[in-house]
Protein backbone atom coordinates (compact mmCIF):
# COMPACT_ATOMS: atom_id res chain seq x y z
CA UNK A 1 0.00 0.00 0.00
CA UNK A 2 1.14 3.49 -0.68
CA UNK A 3 2.09 5.47 2.39
CA UNK A 4 2.29 9.22 2.80
CA UNK A 5 4.39 10.90 5.47
CA UNK A 6 2.82 13.61 7.55
CA UNK A 7 3.83 15.25 10.78
CA UNK A 8 2.21 15.40 14.15
CA UNK A 9 3.05 17.82 16.93
CA UNK A 10 3.92 16.13 20.21
CA UNK A 11 4.43 17.99 23.46
CA UNK A 12 7.55 17.10 25.44
CA UNK A 13 7.83 17.40 29.22
CA UNK A 14 9.33 20.88 28.71
CA UNK A 15 6.24 21.84 26.62
CA UNK A 16 8.38 22.44 23.54
CA UNK A 17 6.62 21.17 20.39
CA UNK A 18 8.52 18.46 18.51
CA UNK A 19 7.74 17.24 14.98
CA UNK A 20 7.46 13.45 14.73
CA UNK A 21 6.70 11.49 11.54
CA UNK A 22 3.27 9.93 11.13
CA UNK A 23 2.34 7.49 8.36
CA UNK A 24 -1.04 7.72 6.68
CA UNK A 25 -2.17 4.75 4.54
CA UNK A 26 -4.81 4.45 1.87
CA UNK A 27 -8.08 3.54 3.47
CA UNK A 28 -9.44 1.71 0.43
CA UNK A 29 -6.82 -0.20 -1.55
CA UNK A 30 -7.89 -0.70 -5.17
CA UNK A 31 -7.04 -3.87 -7.09
CA UNK A 32 -7.13 -3.37 -10.86
CA UNK A 33 -8.18 -6.67 -12.44
CA UNK A 34 -6.66 -6.91 -15.91
CA UNK A 35 -8.54 -9.37 -18.11
CA UNK A 36 -9.81 -10.12 -21.58
CA UNK A 37 -13.38 -8.90 -22.11
CA UNK A 38 -14.42 -12.48 -22.90
CA UNK A 39 -13.51 -13.27 -19.28
CA UNK A 40 -15.77 -10.54 -17.86
CA UNK A 41 -17.78 -13.01 -15.73
CA UNK A 42 -14.57 -14.51 -14.38
CA UNK A 43 -13.19 -11.04 -13.55
CA UNK A 44 -16.43 -10.17 -11.75
CA UNK A 45 -16.28 -13.42 -9.76
CA UNK A 46 -12.64 -12.78 -8.86
CA UNK A 47 -13.50 -9.22 -7.78
CA UNK A 48 -16.32 -10.56 -5.59
CA UNK A 49 -13.91 -13.07 -4.07
CA UNK A 50 -11.44 -10.29 -3.17
CA UNK A 51 -14.19 -8.17 -1.65
CA UNK A 52 -15.58 -11.10 0.35
CA UNK A 53 -12.31 -12.49 1.72
CA UNK A 54 -11.06 -9.01 2.66
CA UNK A 55 -14.26 -8.03 4.43
CA UNK A 56 -14.68 -5.17 1.95
CA UNK A 57 -11.18 -3.74 2.47
CA UNK A 58 -10.10 -4.45 -1.12
CA UNK A 59 -11.93 -2.51 -3.82
CA UNK A 60 -11.64 -4.29 -7.17
CA UNK A 61 -11.88 -2.47 -10.50
CA UNK A 62 -12.96 -4.45 -13.60
CA UNK A 63 -13.21 -2.42 -16.79
CA UNK A 64 -15.85 -4.77 -18.21
CA UNK A 65 -18.16 -4.69 -15.17
CA UNK A 66 -21.66 -3.87 -16.37
CA UNK A 67 -23.68 -5.00 -13.36
CA UNK A 68 -22.27 -2.89 -10.56
CA UNK A 69 -20.10 0.14 -9.96
CA UNK A 70 -16.67 -1.45 -10.44
CA UNK A 71 -16.33 -0.65 -14.11
CA UNK A 72 -16.42 2.12 -16.64
CA UNK A 73 -19.58 4.20 -16.54
CA UNK A 74 -21.55 4.60 -19.76
CA UNK A 75 -20.48 7.73 -21.60
CA UNK A 76 -16.98 7.81 -20.08
CA UNK A 77 -13.85 7.77 -22.22
CA UNK A 78 -12.69 4.20 -21.62
CA UNK A 79 -8.95 4.73 -22.24
CA UNK A 80 -8.81 7.78 -19.97
CA UNK A 81 -10.67 5.87 -17.24
CA UNK A 82 -8.40 2.83 -17.52
CA UNK A 83 -5.29 4.99 -17.27
CA UNK A 84 -6.71 6.83 -14.24
CA UNK A 85 -7.64 3.57 -12.51
CA UNK A 86 -4.19 2.12 -13.20
CA UNK A 87 -2.73 5.23 -11.56
CA UNK A 88 -4.97 4.81 -8.49
CA UNK A 89 -4.45 1.06 -8.15
CA UNK A 90 -2.45 -0.29 -5.24
CA UNK A 91 -2.09 -3.62 -7.08
CA UNK A 92 -2.79 -5.10 -10.52
CA UNK A 93 -3.91 -8.71 -10.93
CA UNK A 94 -3.81 -10.11 -14.46
CA UNK A 95 -6.16 -13.02 -15.07
CA UNK A 96 -4.15 -15.22 -17.42
CA UNK A 97 -6.60 -17.45 -19.25
CA UNK A 98 -6.81 -19.14 -22.62
CA UNK A 99 -8.41 -15.91 -23.93
CA UNK A 100 -5.91 -13.46 -22.44
CA UNK A 101 -2.55 -15.20 -22.28
CA UNK A 102 -1.31 -13.88 -25.62
CA UNK A 103 -3.30 -10.65 -25.73
CA UNK A 104 -1.28 -7.43 -25.88
CA UNK A 105 -3.77 -5.44 -23.79
CA UNK A 106 -3.03 -7.52 -20.66
CA UNK A 107 0.68 -6.85 -21.18
CA UNK A 108 -0.03 -3.16 -21.74
CA UNK A 109 -2.04 -2.71 -18.52
CA UNK A 110 0.45 -4.56 -16.35
CA UNK A 111 3.35 -2.83 -18.10
CA UNK A 112 1.87 0.61 -17.44
CA UNK A 113 1.33 -0.27 -13.79
CA UNK A 114 4.84 -1.65 -13.25
CA UNK A 115 6.73 0.77 -15.47
CA UNK A 116 4.97 4.03 -14.74
CA UNK A 117 4.25 3.79 -11.04
CA UNK A 118 5.96 0.64 -9.75
CA UNK A 119 2.60 -0.85 -8.80
CA UNK A 120 2.88 -4.53 -7.83
CA UNK A 121 1.55 -6.87 -10.54
CA UNK A 122 0.43 -10.46 -10.09
CA UNK A 123 -0.44 -13.06 -12.69
CA UNK A 124 -3.07 -15.70 -11.93
CA UNK A 125 -3.12 -18.71 -14.26
CA UNK A 126 -6.73 -19.82 -14.65
CA UNK A 127 -7.42 -22.79 -16.90
CA UNK A 128 -3.89 -22.76 -18.31
CA UNK A 129 -0.75 -24.38 -16.91
CA UNK A 130 1.26 -22.06 -14.65
CA UNK A 131 4.32 -22.72 -16.83
CA UNK A 132 2.47 -21.39 -19.89
CA UNK A 133 1.39 -18.26 -18.00
CA UNK A 134 4.93 -17.62 -16.75
CA UNK A 135 6.43 -16.77 -20.13
CA UNK A 136 7.31 -13.51 -21.85
CA UNK A 137 7.05 -10.49 -19.54
CA UNK A 138 5.20 -12.56 -16.95
CA UNK A 139 8.30 -14.76 -16.53
CA UNK A 140 9.75 -12.06 -14.25
CA UNK A 141 6.89 -12.42 -11.75
CA UNK A 142 6.16 -15.14 -9.24
CA UNK A 143 2.72 -15.94 -10.65
CA UNK A 144 0.14 -18.12 -8.98
CA UNK A 145 -2.18 -20.89 -10.01
CA UNK A 146 -5.91 -20.83 -9.37
CA UNK A 147 -5.86 -23.43 -6.60
CA UNK A 148 -7.25 -22.67 -3.13
CA UNK A 149 -3.88 -22.36 -1.37
CA UNK A 150 -2.39 -20.03 -3.99
CA UNK A 151 -5.45 -17.78 -4.14
CA UNK A 152 -5.58 -17.61 -0.35
CA UNK A 153 -1.93 -16.55 -0.22
CA UNK A 154 -2.52 -13.93 -2.93
CA UNK A 155 -5.54 -12.51 -1.12
CA UNK A 156 -3.54 -12.23 2.11
CA UNK A 157 -0.76 -10.42 0.26
CA UNK A 158 -3.22 -7.98 -1.31
CA UNK A 159 -4.85 -7.25 2.04
CA UNK A 160 -1.46 -6.49 3.61
Describe the structure.
The protein is of the alpha/beta class and 160 residues long. It has one domain: Toll/interleukin-1 receptor homology (TIR) domain (Rossmann fold, 3-Layer(aba) Sandwich). 34% of the residues lie in helices and 24% in strands. The chain has five helices and seven strands. The chain has helices at 40-53, 78-88, 104-117, 130-133, 148-159, and strands spanning 3-11, 17-25, 30-34, 59-61, 91-96, 121-125, 144-145. It has a five-stranded parallel β-sheet with strand order 4-3-5-6-7, with helices on both faces. β5 (91-96), α3 and β6 form a beta-alpha-beta unit. It is globular.
Spatially, the strands of the biggest sheet line up as 4-3-5-6-7
Low-confidence stretches: 1-14, 16-25
**Morphology:** globular
Give the class from helix and strand content and strand pairing: alpha/beta
Number of helices: 5
Radius of gyration: 18 Å
- Strand and helix order: EEEHEHEHEHEH
* CATH fold topology: Rossmann fold
Q: Mind telling me the CATH class?
A: Alpha Beta
Distance between the termini: 8 Å
Summarize the main sheet.
5 strands, parallel
Secondary structure: helix percent: 25-40%
Shape-level CATH architecture: 3-Layer(aba) Sandwich
| Total DSSP E strands | 7
- Total number of distinct structural domains: 1
Q: How much β-strand is present in the residues?
A: 15-25%
Mean pLDDT: 81
CATH H-level superfamily title? Toll/interleukin-1 receptor homology (TIR) domain
Amino acid sequence: MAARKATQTVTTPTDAPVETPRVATRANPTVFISHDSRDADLAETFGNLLTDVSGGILKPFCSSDRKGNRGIEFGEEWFKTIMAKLGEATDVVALLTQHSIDRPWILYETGVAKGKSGTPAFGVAIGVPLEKASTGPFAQFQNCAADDDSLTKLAIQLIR
